[in-house]
Amino acid sequence: MSEVCCGLRVGQTVSDFTVETYEPTKGDFGQRSLADLKKEGKWTILFFYPADFTFV
Known about the structure:
By secondary structure, the chain is α+β, with helices and mostly antiparallel strands. The protein contains 1 helix and 2 strands. The protein has a domain at 16-40. Helix content is 11%, strand content 21%. A two-stranded antiparallel sheet has the order 1-2.
């Protein structure tokens, strides 16, 4: 029996995206894209942390 899941799987290719970042050493915000990380040859790990920074 196989399960069907709608999420990403380990090793699966994802579409390019851009995220807002904060660089604490500079004290400033910026942006990074997956395409830039690939060009630089950086390893990239995507994860989802539900409710992070959510006040309860």
